[in-house]
Amino acid sequence: MNYSLQLGKISGIKIQVHWTFILIIGWIVYVNLQAGANPAQLVWAVMFVLTLFVCVLLHELGHALAAKKYHIVTKDITLLPIGGVARLESIPEKPKQELVVALAGPLVNFVILIILLPFIWKIGIPDIDNIQFTDQTNFVYKLMIVNLWLAVFNLIPAFPMDGGRVLRAVLSFSMPRVKATEIAAKMGQLLSIIFVILGFFYNPFLIFIGFFIFIGAQSEVEMTRAKFSLEGKYVFDILMKDFPTLQKRNTIKDSIHDILNSQHKNFLIMDENTPVGTLNRNEIIDALSKGLETSPVGAVMNPGLISLDINTPLEEAFQLLQGQSNLVPVFENGVLVGALDYENITEFILIKTIKETSFKESNKI
Questions:
Q1: What is the mean pLDDT of residues 96-125?
Q2: Which member of 9, 105, 159, 185 has the greatest number of CB atoms within 10 A?
């Protein structure tokens, strides 16, 4: 289920806002009302938050457009109460490219700051003791300070901030990418612990940020290790030659026997010998609960079929299948030779990791 509202597209990139974004607006209104803000100050406060998130959007577009230079597609940019997220199809593997993409976001904030400086020179710096409420006298100043904070905070050399990617890129010039990732992640987790401790004494929101950083850093390490374990491997290395199928013309009721007599979760839907769609166990059960047992399998299948070539690098297949729960047909010279799903790849990574860990432990003895 999609909980985001699409606002439009910029340079082919979907821009969307998560429904929880309204919470930040509500919170700003509540805090200002509690502090005694008048209606005009309330409007200025909401305008400031909206303008701030435009800056966040521009920050994420900086990453996305820099990635586009290296032919990396950005699926979408989503605005959340905690900031923005640009979903790149992949992270640049070359250190120089990752450095450019990582720096592009904070650079946008520095550019905004520079653009705002002439306005500050003209209107002057507002009274620091009187900026509790946002109004026309301090709007630009606050926006400049926030953009400075966004740039500096994101450049902290620790995952999952942009600075963590900058650090990894710099380290990757002289060491393996996995090792560079582990160093940047450890710095991120150390920072997260500091944030949590400070949160108990100063601002509880720092505790939330600390947990976010810790989890993000760990996820980055796991993802990088997974990609590293797939290097030099291809789809044919883990191809399933014996895979479950259902015929498109058969009814759901006719297919129940095949489903119940197997442990498979995903099925490839065939029109005779040609794959035309996919279906998983949960979708079949859902169709039954809706009284569609007499409907043909083809009526409830997922027709959007992704396919792979048998010689596709496994790392590429891993990126392609992320978020996919269905089987993918695999072809060799146009002939169907097997199938693959995301779970196959994750199991391969797990087994390889266990073997490597066992080998290292045995060498220590």
A1: 89
A2: 159
